Amino acid sequence: MNIKTLIIAFVLFAGICTSTNAQHPKREFRGAWIQCVNGQYLGKSPKELRQMLSNQLDVLQNAKINAIIFQVRAEGDALYHSKLEPWSRYLTGRQGKAPEDGWDPLEWIIKECHKRDMELHAWINPYRAKTKGTTSLATNHAAIKYPERIFQYGDLYIFNPALEENIEYTCDVVEDIVERYDVDGIHIDDYFYPYPEAGREIPDGDFYRKDKRGFDDIGDWRRDNVNKLIEALHSSIHKTKPWVKFGVSPFGIYRNDRNGGNTKHGSATNGLQNYDDLYADIVLWQDKGWVDYLVPQIYWNIGTKAADYDVLCQWWNEYCSKRPLYIGQDVERTVKGVDPMNPNRHQMQKKYDIQRSLPNVSGSCQWYAASVVNNPGNYRTMLEQVYHKYPTLQPEMTFIDKKAPKKPRKARIETHDNRVYLAWDAPKAKKEMDKAKQFVVYLFEPNEKIDLNNPTKIQAVSHKQNFELKGNLIGHTIVITALDRMHNESKGVKIKL
Fold it and tell me: What is the pTM of this model?
């Protein structure tokens, strides 16, 4: 690295650190996507994969990432033990081939995330049955067993959204995951109807003409097909386990304002659209309460003519605030972009200034986890030292549950291996939704006013029932609260040292 590069890097970092708009919210979703489709698993043994993922999780934990979105179904396949679908080729190189040592990646990563106090959201694609690079399908793949339920679009096989059988089948797959695994959420991405290709029509006209269901426009009919799946998934998940969240990460543009139509919600953009091109009516889903959180993929930079990051963040903040809203961030594009107000730094600071200025935005999710780990443009360093400097609680979801757990019990001083700890017992609870799953530790200076709304006082958000006392803390006050599965916070137990 030459002197010029070093100077620029220093300016970038210093600019971030001195930002007057760097805020420290008490509650914030801080997610990262771990995908299988980029080929990062291929050619590695299960042992090597576990080591690679462990290293990623350790680095992400240090950056105070509090949720991992882990891809477990890319094309009607599975990165977990499934009786319904074959093992994924993205895991072992051949669809239907199991990991050599019987490893279950989903079960493993749930445990690894939870011990690091991260949520784990299982990420599925409900419609893709085969992608371009897949040359052969396992005998138990749905496209082989039920070819009449699939249509082809270019190199893709798609579960036909018009068929009730596919809605039921997808719900069966998700119910199986939710029933057998301790996931914190189910997550779907932006692949609904296939991304349009010039000159290629979706081959569903016969299905439309056979059963129009009162729709005069095939676009409205297609949107209704997708609506039915979203509503069914939400109902199925919460019926199985009420605390499991259902999140959607849609493409970043809902609709361009030039399209107008009956939605009246267009943005000042000119790109692919959820509403008209993918037949995904995101606004309707949040209006109906069929989703628990949204993570629009606003991967473009500030100043992008067709899709400006600033314009889109403002739009989602205004029109999609009935459910928790997080911004999907593209790490690599961000650090390649130039701050329009300062040519000596990239766009991370400006993007976070925008994100945290919006009242209805409650966090972000990083595309993708490995890029955060790789730390281009000091992106991860800036998370660690500025934007994620302090631990946070997850955003509340009072529409699911708003009852706080009881406060921790029997706080006491314990000594182990010449170390001193403050320890406590979890509160008693009979129902799963009332159980304490994590604890928040606040530390206040002598004679300092106790303020649990001050996030800079949070020392830990952890499942552990102790906190090591380091240094001279005589006269300090510690407050301990409990969090349930939905991150409702109890009253505090105060201990003066």
Answer: 0.95
